[in-house]
Each structure stands twice: as structure tokens, then as C-alpha cells.
Q: What sequence folds into this?
């Protein structure tokens, strides 16, 4: 084979894969947003067949020969091509070890289980979801065993979601968080509770939708390439390339901040994805590199920017305009304090920044035990409730607001949750660095996200998946990861809100 | 090859095709409904690749060998299998004659041209659409030439949309319609105009959406399998099988009947598709057999049932409930007369039943000349306007309400329009037959579609594409097609409304 021809084939292969990704991603997105209720089996049928075809495309003899040839000649490839070959071979090495029937059966299982989870959550019926989750846990353990027989299965998946991560690092990270967060939360709890009445009332969906679209524009999302839809559990997905990005939200009529901050969160994901350099479109380098870096962006926009005093001051007049009856009696400081109120609670996605990581820790500890075979799925709800009492001091009234609240396990994402806490911590370190050259507060006060977005694009987004998470951190920070920067940031917030 | 094995492969092939149909259909549907405005090129990229892959799947050596083997052994196949092999081979014979590059380029062209048409219609800019339409006409002529060099290109496509149809039959059919319609329209025009003020006013979209969902339920659509979305030009599509059907509509705030009757029209398509026997799912026999039979169902529900006195009596109280300010001053007879007012007009989809076929005839005559190379695309707007003046006596104020009004040409459907008139005529004959055993008016007055739907399912829907249009007509009617039944029906309507 000629090297030049092989390089062309490398691009063609990725274009084909991106077309299948587009198709399969859209089928899932459709299922999560507008598809009629009774169509899950039909969708599973199509996805089962397409995943079998893509399996054969990715692991077929021709593909493997192509990539191995390119890998042998990697010295002559560009940096981007080297990374493409590395990432593709990594996937192939994994896929080659999974028997085709198991892979296809798993893909179908995942489609069905999401449907079952949706219903189970709506009806507070963990028992109906349990058999699916059992199969998912078993498959994830088995797949890790095929892929890396000498690695602990949970370590394997942690590293998949965030390359470089394992239980040891998580344990260290979470233990440091706990050391400083537990007394911090306690200190806040001893102060007078922050009122949040301004967030609760009657906020019609149509108006919330207007707010969502306004904030998407304000934060600088390229709206010709980013759509908004309604779903049960908000998520973001790219279709084929960073040129078509979809974010989703869920409106609660009685609560104005839930959808608002979910839109900013998903908008952060979408900014990261759509910020890829256009030359990366239809390659495996397109879009974000890892869940940790992804969450560092989404939670950066949601919390570090979105819940800052400067942004709340900019945002509040718009809120008053959209919901005059509810909000005219209040000032922006009331809103700022309310969305930063520290209050142990039931729902992760609604949690304040300070208690948030405790929600993640509960999931981490449970996943660790599930994946070690030390906890049965049947015992999960009771353990969940026990740990929420221990970590957050709250009583879980039902599984809908407990173990069934998150969609992740229903689509097999076991090992994802730690990225949320890790990403939050990365974000605080990015902020510190950004402040060296950008007057972040001044930008936010006038609602000008351009300099902030430009910094992120320059430093992070444009590269897509070209660099590993460790390389991204090293390039951006020039310093090692340090969770204490995040903890300092959280303490600063608490000082402002609670006068600690 | 063993026959038994080949039969299994026949089913597997169709399942694969249905998965690709699902994916590609959904990508198009997404583009027509919720996709962000700037994503057409990204969509075209994915569709270009997937259509190349499906081309190779359908025309590949293995597929051809399989189908030819089965065809040689067709005596041992079931009736259904014989029909599958026939339909698949027919497609292959066509595809084999189209060069791959031309096929792929055409698929991309179609995606782009729909986007261009949408913009051109919005901006009354025919010039921007013209180069795309020129390429489409040229491709359709060329493809017909590849497929059937001895057949006239327009005849070829008429027969594709409605097997058995050609220019000669169209000419006869339309000439008979004209003979009786022109004096009928004239006679109505000499009577006092029917007031339609009750249809015009302020009908908020949210309420129209409620009406759409109510009428979908009333007409017996299986709502767990049929979704509703908003688009520019309403259409219906199946995703993968009849188990997931999507209809679309467009709300005009100042007009209550437009979206209502488009929903009933598309609902008729969806009833036909979803009425396929479940055993046909994921095969080429799933869903309706031809455009003519399809329109016989959609226009049957829209007009013959939907604009009947009996249904208007049932429907009107619901309309009053949803739009009390607008409609409380009126009675159901006002509504019935208004939606049956005979009035030559500009927009086909908004036309009354009597003048409707004239809209189709204009398109038929223009298509005939375009496909014969006797009319240049550049001259189309002027010719359109001239013929609207001649046939309908109306002046076309702009191309948005003229030659750009329909989406069909933008996706290559040249030869489709005659099916609308033909289907309408089939429908009148079906009604006559149905009345022999079903008291249609009594059902409609109480809003009970079950006996009507059951008759259609029994007679037509369940068979999907098992029988040709001619066989369907023969089986259902036991008599030859007779456009005078349709003309009698229209005259009867005019007698009621205008007291002719």
C-alpha cells in the first residue's frame, strides 16, 4: 500500500464512521426527545443492525490492516494523523476482544434499558429497571475483562471516561474534597439559611423557553449549529460533526433556575464541541477529548460563570422582564444568593456547588462496590438511601428522587460520575489561569462572553481530541492538577454568601 | 445455496435496508423539523455517505445473486416472498443502471436543494432555486434514460409513482375531469359566494396544536406510534417500519382550517402506513403500495370524511371549545359551508375539493413539458402564472405563492402530482363501496371512526405493498376505475352547498 493512499483511506474511514455516528446518534436523540412513546422496540431494531454493521466496519480485516500499516509508518504521519491512528486502534483493540453477538446484544440492551429506566423513574419502580441494570453491570465487568484482563474492571472504565484516572486517584481526590468540604458545609449550616423564595413560583414553560434561547445567545453559542429540545434528563449530543450540536433541557414550571442552569451547563458542552477547528470535522479528533475536560467546560459555564455575582447582575433584569410578577419584588443579590445557597439535598443536578461533590462521591462509592461484585443491584436502593443520609444528611423519600434520578447507568455509563467532580475542579484552576489575562467579572457584568470564549477556544476547544486530558491540563495550566484551588474557590463563595 | 437459507437471507437483507431507511429517513425528517438552520451541509455529508453504502448494499454482487436465485425458484416461494423479490429486483435493475457517482451526487443534490428551496420560498427568490431544479430535471431525465431507454422519461416517472400510469392515461383522466369540472366551477361561481369568515381570525398556535392532537385521536391514529411535528410543508414519513410514523403540520395563526385539514390529510397517510400487518415490518412490503393509493387514503380522510356535513357536525363543538371567542357566534353549518366553499385560489394545499384538480393539472402540464425539454426551468414562473390565469382565473402575485409553493420538485418528485387527483378519484369510488356495508354518516356524526378504519384496514391497509394499485382497485371495487364516480360526488357536494 502507498502511504499517500493509506492516508486518504484513513480520512474516508473516519467519514464513514461519522456518518454512522450521525445516524445512530440521531436515532437515540430522537428517542430521548420527540419520538412517540411506543417506538422504542422499533428504534432498538435499527440500532441493533447498525451497530452490527459499524462493528464490522471498525474491526474488519481491511480496516485493521490499514491502521496497522499507518501505525508502523507513524513517523511519517502528521501529529493529527498519529493521534487518529492511536485512537482508532485503541477502539479496535477493544472491539476485537468483544464477541460480536455480545456487542450487538449490549447495544440493544442499552436502548431498551433507557426506555425502561424512563418509565421506572416516572413510576418509582426500581424493580422493573433492576434486571436491566444487572445485565448492564455484568456486561461492563465482562467487557472490561475481555479488554484488559489484568486491570480492575472499574479502573478500566474510569480510565475510559477520563484517561489517566483510576480508583487510587479518585480516592485521593475525593478524600481531599471531603476533608475540606464537610467542615465548610457544616459552617454554612450554622449560619442563617439563605432565602430562595425568588426561585420558586409559577414560571410558564413558554417564558422559560424564551429565557433558554436568550441565554444560549448571550453565552455565544453559534445558534445556526446548535439546537434546543426538551427531554427528561438533559444531555448534549453532536450529530456527525461539531457542525450540528443538540442540547436539551427540562422545564419545571415551579422552578426558574433548574432549566436555566441546565441550559448553561449543556451550552458549555456545546461550546466545547462546536469550538473544534473545522479541519477536525468528520474525524475522531472532532469534539471534546474526555468526560472530565468536557465537564470542566459545562460546569465552568454553569457554576463558575453562571452563578457568579457578575453574571447574576447581568442576567437578573432579563429574568424580571420575562417573569415580572414573580421577580419584580426582588433584586439581583437575592437571586445571586439563592442560586448559591448551600443546602444538602436529594437531586444531584439541582445541588449547589459546595454539596455537589458529595452526590458524586455517593455514586462513586456505589459503583466501586457494584463493579467489584460487592454490592448486588437489588440492594442498591437501600444503600443509596443509607449513604445519602450519611453523606448529605437527607432522607430519600422514593427511588424516583433517589437511585433512579440519573440516566447514566441506564445507558451503561458506569464510571462517568467522577468526571463531574474532577471537571469542576479543573474548571476552578482554568479560571485562576484565565484571570491572568481576562477580566472575567467585567466581561460577565456586561454579558460579553466573547473574550472568555476566545480564551477557551484558543486554549482548549480548537484542539478537539488532539491532546490527552493530561496534556490539556499541562498546556493550559503549566502546573499539576491541584484540587485545593477548587476548594479555595468554594470557600471564597461561601465567605461571600454566608460571611464565614 | 439452499433455498431455506436464501429465504432467511432475503429477510436479513430487508432488515438491513430498513435500518438504513430508518436512519436516512430520520436525518431528512430532522432537517425538515427541528434541526438548526445551518446544518444542511453536515446532513448532506452523512446522507451522501449512507446513500453510497446503501447503493452498494442493494446492488452488490451477493445481493444480486441472492435475488436472482430466489427469482429462479419463485414457484417455491410464498406470495409475499415473490412480491418482495420482484420489488427488490426492480429497484436493483434500476440502481444497476445508474452510475454510482451520479447516484451519490444526486442524493447530495436533493438534500441541498430542499434547503435552498426552503430559503427561496421564504424570500420569493426563484432564481436561487432554479439551478438546483435544472440539475434535478436533468438528472431525472437522465436516470429514466438509463433505466428505460425506450420509454418516455415522464412516462417512466409517472409509472414509478403510480404503477400503470402514463401520459396517455393522465391525459384521458384530466380531460374527463375538465369536461365536467369547468362548468361545475362556473355554476358555483354564478351563485352567491359562501361566507368563510368563521375560518379567519386569531387562532393561537398552542390551541391549534391541541386541536391537532385531538383530531389525531378522534380519527383513530395509534398515538403511541405516530408523532406530530411542525414543518414548512407538511408530509408524513415512516421510520424503519410502520411501527414509527411521523406526521407534520404548519400552523397559520390567522386560519384555523389549514393546519386542521393538513393534520387529517397526513393522518390518512399515517393510518394507511400503520395499518400494515405487523408481519410486514422490516420488509419492502411494509407501508403503502403507491402514491395514488396513498393519496386515496389521505384525501379520503381530509375531504370525503373531514369535510362531510356529518363530521363537521361532530367536530364543531370541539372547535368552539378551543376557540370560543372566534367561533361561538357560528353554527356547524357555517363551518361546513366555509370549508366546502368553491373558490379558485392560489395554493394547492388550501384549495377546495372542486378546484383542487385544476391545480394538479397545471403542474402535470408543466412537468410534461419540462421533462420533454420543451420548457426551460427559467421560463417556469411565467408559464406557471399564465396557466394559473388560464385554468383558475387567478393572478399569481409572487413565486412564493406560485411556482415555489410546493416542496415536491425540490426533492425530485416530478410525476408525483397526478397521484393527488387520481387518489381523490379512487377515494370517491372507495366511499361508494364502503357505504354498501358501513353507515359512514352515522359513524362520523358520533365521531366513531372505528368501523370506517376497520373497513379500510380489512380492504386496503393490512396488505401494505403486497398488491399492485390495479390489484387493490380490482380487489376492493370489483369494477374498473371510473372518474365519473368522483365527479358525481363533487357535483353532489356542490348541490348541497350551492343549491345547484
A:
Amino acid at each position: 500500500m502507498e502511504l499517500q493512499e493509506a492516508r486518504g483511506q484513513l480520512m474516508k474511514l473516519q467519514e464513514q464512521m461519522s456518518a454512522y455516528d450521525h445516524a445512530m446518534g440521531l436515532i437515540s436523540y430522537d428517542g430521548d426527545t420527540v419520538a412517540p412513546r411506543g417506538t422504542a422496540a422499533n428504534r432498538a431494531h435499527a440500532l441493533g443492525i447498525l451497530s452490527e454493521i459499524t462493528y464490522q466496519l471498525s474491526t474488519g480485516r481491511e480496516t485493521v490492516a490499514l491502521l496497522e500499516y499507518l501505525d508502523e509508518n507513524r513517523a511519517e504521519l502528521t501529529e493529527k494523523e498519529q493521534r487518529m491512528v492511536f485512537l482508532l486502534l485503541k477502539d479496535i483493540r477493544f472491539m476485537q476482544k468483544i464477541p460480536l453477538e455480545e456487542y450487538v446484544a449490549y447495544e440493544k440492551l442499552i436502548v431498551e434499558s433507557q426506555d425502561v429506566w424512563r418509565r421506572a423513574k416516572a413510576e418509582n419502580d426500581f424493580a422493573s429497571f433492576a434486571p436491566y441494570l444487572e445485565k448492564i453491570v455484568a456486561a461492563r465487568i465482562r467487557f472490561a475483562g475481555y479488554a484488559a484482563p489484568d486491570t480492575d474492571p472499574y479502573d478500566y472504565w474510569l480510565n475510559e471516561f477520563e484517561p489517566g484516572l483510576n480508583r487510587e486517584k479518585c480516592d485521593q481526590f475525593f478524600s481531599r474534597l471531603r476533608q475540606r468540604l464537610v467542615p465548610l458545609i457544616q459552617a454554612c449550616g450554622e449560619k442563617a439559611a439563605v432565602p430562595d423564595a425568588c426561585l420558586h413560583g409559577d414560571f410558564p414553560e413558554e417564558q422559560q423557553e424564551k429565557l433558554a434561547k436568550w441565554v444560549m445567545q448571550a453565552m455565544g453559542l453559534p445558534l445556526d449549529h446548535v439546537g434546543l429540545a426538551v427531554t427528561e434528563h438533559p444531555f448534549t449530543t453532536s450529530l456527525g460533526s461539531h457542525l450540528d450540536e443538540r442540547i436539551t433541557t427540562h422545564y419545571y414550571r415551579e422552578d426558574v433556575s433548574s432549566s436555566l442552569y441546565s441550559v448553561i451547563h449543556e451550552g458549555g458542552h456545546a461550546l466545547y464541541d462546536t469550538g473544534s477547528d473545522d479541519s477536525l470535522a468528520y474525524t475522531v479528533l472532532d469534539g471534546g477529548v474526555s468526560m472530565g475536560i468536557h465537564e470542566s467546560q459545562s460546569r465552568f459555564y454553569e457554576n463558575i460563570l453562571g452563578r457568579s455575582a457578575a453574571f447574576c447582575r447581568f442576567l437578573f433584569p432579563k429574568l424580571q422582564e420575562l417573569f415580572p410578577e414573580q421577580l419584580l419584588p426582588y433584586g439581583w443579590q437575592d437571586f445571586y444568593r439563592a442560586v448559591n445557597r448551600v443546602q444538602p439535598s436529594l437531586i444531584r443536578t439541582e445541588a449547589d456547588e459546595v454539596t455537589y461533590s458529595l452526590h458524586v462521591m455517593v455514586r462513586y462509592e456505589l459503583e466501586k462496590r457494584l463493579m467489584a461484585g460487592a454490592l448486588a443491584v437489588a440492594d442498591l436502593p437501600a444503600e443509596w438511601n443509607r449513604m445519602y443520609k450519611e453523606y448529605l444528611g437527607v432522607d430519600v423519600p422514593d427511588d424516583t428522587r433517589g437511585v433512579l434520578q440519573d440516566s447514566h447507568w441506564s445507558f451503561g455509563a458506569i464510571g462517568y460520575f467522577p468526571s463531574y467532580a474532577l471537571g469542576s475542579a479543573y474548571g476552578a484552576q482554568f479560571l485562576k489561569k484565565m484571570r491572568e489575562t481576562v477580566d472575567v467579572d467585567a466581561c460577565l457584568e456586561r454579558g460579553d462572553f466573547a473574550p472568555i470564549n476566545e480564551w477557551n477556544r484558543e486554549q482548549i476547544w480548537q484542539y478537539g481530541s488532539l491532546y490527552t486530558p493530561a496534556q490539556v491540563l499541562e498546556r493550559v495550566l503549566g502546573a499539576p492538577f491541584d484540587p485545593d484551588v477548587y476548594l479555595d474557590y468554594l470557600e471564597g463563595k461561601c465567605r461571600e454568601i454566608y460571611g464565614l
User: Anything to note?
Assistant: Chain A is about 65% helix and 5% strand. Chain A has two domains: 3-150, 167-498.
